[in-house]
């Protein structure tokens, strides 16, 4: 059977996770930098140009750093996007998830994403996040982060959350970056 193809929506959700982390860094600078400086900073952080240690898209394409929570090792030793997040199995680092796929503006284009694209896309990411937060707090306590329905474990809660997100927000998803936000805190669940 041929390998699964990464869909545009899946690719965009993964990239949104990297965009979200880069945008957080830009916004910590406040209004002190110009739009051109913001665009350059985003491009540097995502593609590894300039004085960045490791590009966020490289970390994503290799399943490292903040993005490691999205991946698991198979019995064969391959790094796979967790089916819990992808809603399918068989999406692998190095096969479907590569730098080439993540850094291109579209699948068929040779043009790389730009800082302008990311800033323009920021409003969509922010809008999705507001919706995600309103949905996630149906499942977890806003103050403590504890599961509201004590009969479920974290993978079940995340699966239910993703089902609701996909049902309500088809073609608008930035699911991966929302999940990164959920699992990044010190009291957050370990997603397996």
Characterization of the model:
With 192 residues, the chain is mainly α. It has helices spanning 8-28, 35-47, 56-62, 83-86, 99-103, 115-136, 154-168, 175-183, and strands at 71-73, 79-81. The protein has a two-stranded antiparallel sheet. Strand 1 (71-73) and strand 2 form a beta hairpin. Helix 1 (8-28) crosses helix 6, helix 1 crosses helix 8 and helix 2 packs across helix 6. It is globular. The protein starts with 7 loop residues before the first helix and ends in a 9-residue tail after the last helix. 29% of the residues are buried.
Largest sheet: 2 strands, antiparallel
Per DSSP E runs of 2 or more residues, the count of β-strands stands at 2
Strand residue percentage: under 5%
Query: What would you report as the Rg, rounded to the nearest angstrom?
Result: 17 Å
Point out poorly predicted stretches: 182-192
- Given the helix and strand composition, which structural class is it? mainly alpha
- Terminal CA distance reads 27 Å
Name the helicity range: 40-55%
Number of helices: 8
Shape: globular
Q: Topology as H/E string? A: HHHEEHHHHH
| Mean of all residue-level pLDDT scores | 75
Q: What topology, given as strand order, has the largest sheet? A: 1-2
């Amino acid at each position: 059977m041929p390998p699964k193809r990464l869909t545009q929506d899946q690719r965009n959700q993964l990239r949104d996770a990297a965009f979200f982390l880069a945008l957080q860094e830009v916004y910590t600078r406040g209004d002190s930098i110009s739009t051109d400086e913001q665009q350059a900073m985003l491009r540097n952080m995502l593609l590894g140009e300039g004085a960045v240690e490791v590009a966020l898209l490289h970390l994503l394409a290799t399943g490292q750093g903040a993005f490691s929570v999205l991946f698991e090792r198979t019995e064969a030793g391959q790094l796979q996007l967790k089916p819990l997040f992808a809603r399918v199995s068989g999406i692998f680092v190095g096969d479907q998830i590569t730098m080439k796929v993540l850094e291109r503006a579209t699948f068929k284009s040779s043009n790389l994403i730009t800082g302008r694209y990311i800033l323009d896309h920021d409003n969509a990411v922010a809008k999705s996040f507001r919706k995600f937060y309103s949905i996630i707090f149906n499942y977890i306590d806003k103050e403590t982060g504890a599961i509201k329905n004590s009969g479920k474990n974290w993978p079940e809660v995340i699966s239910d959350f993703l089902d609701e997100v996909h049902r309500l927000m088809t073609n608008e998803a930035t699911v991966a970056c929302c999940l990164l936000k959920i699992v990044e805190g010190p009291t957050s669940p370990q997603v397996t």
